[in-house]
Amino acid sequence: MKLTKKICLAITALALIVTPFLANCNQIQTVAAARTSKKTAKGKITLIYDAHLYNKYGHKIKNKKADLSNADNDINGYRYIPNFDAGIVEYYGTKIINGQKFYNIGDGCYINAADVKEVNGKNSKKGKLVLLQKSAVYTKAGNKSGYTLPKRAIVKYQGKVKQVKSKPKYYYSKYFKSDNDEHFFYLPLTKIKGKNYYAIGKNRYVKAYNVASLDGYPLTYNGVTTATVLKKTATQTIKNKTTKHVLKKGQKIKVDLAVQPWAEDFEGYIFRLHDHPNEYIDESYINLRNYLPTSNYFVQVCSFVKSKKTANIKLYDVTGNPVGVSFNAAELSIFNVDGLFYIWNATTNKAELYYHLLSSSFNKKDLLNNDGTQLSSPKTDSQNAGSTLTTAEKIISVNSFVKASDVKFYDGIKLSPLNKPAETEQKQKIATDSDKAQLQKAFDSGQQIGDSNGRHGELMLSYDYALVNAAVVLRSAKATLAQVDQANWLLETTKTQIDTLYFEDFS
């Protein structure tokens, strides 16, 4: 993620407290700098995060068309190398500029050593932290020691980094090839007067909030941080729709999460505004103070449950009766759900809790007959073949449930029941025409909605099937108040999902 912090390192007389070092960066691909002369590269460096380019005077380079593969301009025109594009950068020497060490990468461009993780394959930041701003050094009692560290200071820390399963307040993460999973690491903190510090020497501490990287990895702050708006812009929704909320250049905002947008080839994150949780700002428009935890689009807009067992999971209808279809646990054990209901089961004579399935999130290969055999006909279908489904199959597709007792919450938005157990029995009364008036109105208006550009086929198909379900309830002389309420909910929910969700088409 883009976290270009302009943190300069100056040499200070803190020999008893810190040992300034300057080093390298981490990445995935290779960047070769153009050379103005036939110099031989002295080695390679990898970046910790995005690295701005500097000239020989230590000034950021602006709008220079340097012949550097993968170099780009930030929102204000300053040149930088994005960390997710640049893996390995050749360098041709080092230079001390204004008391800081820089790597010469050719064509008059330099990279601050504080942005560098590895030099010739060796982690130069192991056992060290890098400060993102000028920081006072404190004693155990919480008093200032009289020493101050400059921006981008590279400092040896005390203590041992430990691995942890869940995200602590401050941590860094990395992926292992063995399981391709994210693992979390943290350096134990010292609490002084209610604030978090890292030990950097005997009776010497710096605020954890002022640390940019640890062991050569960006330090993530699991909290609310600030960002400076770099250019006037409006915020956006998670689905990339512009809002009327305009942010001014130079404005300070609070952000609390980095979200991967819905895209197959995203090139960055959008950040959630803490005071406006439904609004986001693209990373290119802000200067972020601290790295934040990352999430993805689906976790922010969807709810997921996971099977508690390896056996196939039965699907039920709105009355709590099996529909004859099950999820194939070998194909799918995590389900996307969009509602949580108490349903009155006449057989057991009690209310039970069920999750409503989001039909657009699975396809026909995920389903089996309850006896484990393959379906003779698809229970979900693509938009083009939707007409081949019977009315019953369309209703199963859009309005099926799994028992809450068969699954457990897995990720995303945690749902709360939309009704209460006590009212489920009361709602078993047969609905009158008057009781169906609201559903009839929603059904009539829904028939006028046609497909249009930007509406996703699967989600639109779910809405069409919700209309089919509503029509059946409206025609039925035995439909209960509970069924009418649920049909209303289904129409409203599937209609909203057309404008708020993205999903792949299933066939």
Largest sheet: 6 strands, mixed
Strand content: 35-45%
* Mean pLDDT over all positions: 85
Radius of gyration: 29 Å
Helix content: 10-25%
Number of helices: 6
Shape: elongated
CA-CA gap between termini = 34 Å
Q: How many individual β-strands?
A: 40
* Domains (count): 4
Going by helix content, strand content and strand pairing, the class is mainly beta
List low-pLDDT spans. Answer: 1-37, 378-385, 451-455
Map the helices and strands.
Blueprint: E1 30-31, E2 43-47, E3 51-52, E4 72-73, E5 79-81, E6 88-91, E7 94-97, E8 100-106, E9 109-112, E10 116-119, E11 122-123, E12 128-131, E13 135-138, E14 144-149, E15 154-156, E16 162-164, E17 170-176, E18 181-186, E19 190-192, E20 195-201, E21 204-207, E22 211-214, E23 217-218, E24 220-221, E25 225-229, E26 233-236, E27 242-247, E28 252-260, E29 270-273, E30 276-282, E31 286-288, E32 294-296, H1 297-301, E33 303-307, E34 313-316, E35 322-327, E36 334-345, E37 350-357, E38 367-369, H2 391-398, E39 401-403, E40 407-412, H3 421-426, H4 437-446, H5 457-475, H6 481-500
Domain S-layer protein C-terminal: 89-114, 188-208
InterPro entries: SlpA_C_lactobacillus
Protein name: SLAP domain-containing protein
Task: Write a concise keyword list for the protein shown above.
507 residues, signal, SLAP domain-containing protein, mainly beta, SH3 type barrels, 4 domains, five-stranded mixed beta sheet, SlpA_C_lactobacillus
Provide structural commentary:
This protein is mainly beta and 507 residues long. It folds into four domains: 30-123, no CATH class; 128-221, no CATH class; 225-300, SH3 type barrels (Roll); 303-500, no CATH class. Helices cover 13% and strands 36% of the residues. The protein is built from six helices and 40 strands. A hairpin with a 5-residue loop joins strand 34 (313-316) and strand 35. It is elongated, with a radius of gyration of 29 Å. This is SLAP domain-containing protein.
